[in-house]
Amino acid sequence: MPIKFPFTKNKKHTSSQPLGLDFNHLPEHVAIIMDGNGRWAKNRGMPRIAGHKEGMSVVKKVVRHASDIGVKVLTLYAFSTENWKRPKNEVDFLMKLPVDFLNTYLPELIEKNVQVQTIGDFGVLPQHTQKAVNEAIERTKDNDGLILNFALNYGSRFEMVNAVKQIALRVNQGELNPEEINEDLFSSELYTKDLIEPDLLIRTSGEQRLSNFLLWQLAYAEFWFTEVYWPDFDEGLFEKALYDYQNRKRRYGGV
Ligand code: IPE
Ligand code: IPE
Ligand code: MG
Predict the structure, then answer these.
(1) Where are the alpha helices (DSSP H) in 127-204?
(2) Which pLDDT score, from 0 to 100, does residue 17 have?
(3) Which positions in this protein are listed as binding substrate (predicted)?
(4) How far apart are CA 206 and CA 175, in angstroms?
(5) What structural domains does the chain harbor?
(6) Which pLDDT score, from 0 to 100, does residue 19 have?
(7) Which ligand 1 atom sits nearest the alpha carbon of residue 83?
(8) DSSP 3-state assignment of 10?
(9) Residue range 169-223, pLDDT digits in tens
(10) Burial annotation 3-12 (CB, 10 A radius, 16+ → b, else e)
(11) Is residue 243 a contact partner of residue 21, using CB atoms and an 8 Å limit?
(12) Taking a C-beta distance cutoff of 8 angstroms, is the pair 157, 215 a contact?
């Protein structure tokens, strides 16, 4: 019998087997590798970009739900530093997506008190992408609800190499003693410096790898994988991931 999951703590649900999600102990920071758009489309005889378009409506659903139940930070891997290798028409489409997304969805984000942020090498994105995202950042900067953090042109190795360069520069200028370099200092040079570390990483589409996502930050996160392609992901699966997370035992190397 398929199990249905309660979608929000207030909403009535019809399931005879509620998940028992504890809304007082949610992971504070959930990171998602939204994968499988292309295969979803291919299975339907559609072009890959149709999968990305469908994936965008899932982003809306998941953001809305994360905000409703009280997740603090949601980091979504939208475009990696390696995704430039894709055909130009696909890259162009992916760079248009934030524009379309924010055009239709920014008012709701504002209403929901969501704060938009980004991580990644932002300055090299096309002007129209930067403009739309900057407007969203600006217009939501005083919100203190869910932090919706888009990883755009993000690569963890690039991020860490840059951190090393910054630190080396400070040593070179005599501002910093190599003895003072520690984990906190290194973290403070990453894009994520103002965010708590992810508690839970979700990856859709059956792939079980990080693909250069938050290599440092995920050191002690719980990983949750599903075979489901991103366009078929929904609130119920999101809650299932949170539920499974709550039934894990995090030990951080202790006993
Ligand atoms: C994830 O879906 C979206 C992005 C990487 C932007 P893919 O486009 O990687 O879909 P698959 O993995 O080829 O099916
Ligand atoms: C990771 O997915 C990047 C995003 C979801 C944005 P990819 O589809 O690019 O990763 P690989 O190529 O399967 O490792
Ligand atoms: Mg993929």
Answers:
(1) 127-140, 156-172, 183-187
(2) 56
(3) 36-40, 48, 52, 80-82, 84, 86, 203, 209-211
(4) 46
(5) 29-156+193-226+235-245 (3.40.1180.10)
(6) 83
(7) 5
(8) coil
(9) 999 999 999 999 999 999 999 999 999 999 999 999 999 999 999 999 999 999 9
(10) eebbbeeeee
(11) yes
(12) yes
Catalytic center residues: 35, 83
The rounded distance, in Å, linking the Cα atoms of 166 and 67 is 35
With the most atoms of ligand 2 within 8 angstroms of its CB, the residue from 211, 215, 230 to mutate is 211
Which ligand 1 atom is nearest residue 36's CA?
14
Residues 6+ apart with CB under 8 A from 16: none
How many helices (H) and strands (E) would you count in the chain?
7, 6
Tokens of 209: 């790898």
Q: Where are the alpha helices (DSSP H) in 173-224?
A: 183-187
CA 48 to ligand 1 center in whole angstroms: 8
The residue to which tokens 């894709």 are assigned: 86
Is 18's pLDDT higher than 90?
A: no
**Mean pLDDT, residues 82-91:** 98
40 marked as binding residue: yes
Q: Output the CA torsion sign for 38, 81, 118, 75.
A: positive
End-to-end CA distance of the chain: 37
Quote the percentage of the chain above a pLDDT of 70: 93
pLDDT at 1 over 60: no
Ligand number, closest to the Cα atom of 41:
1
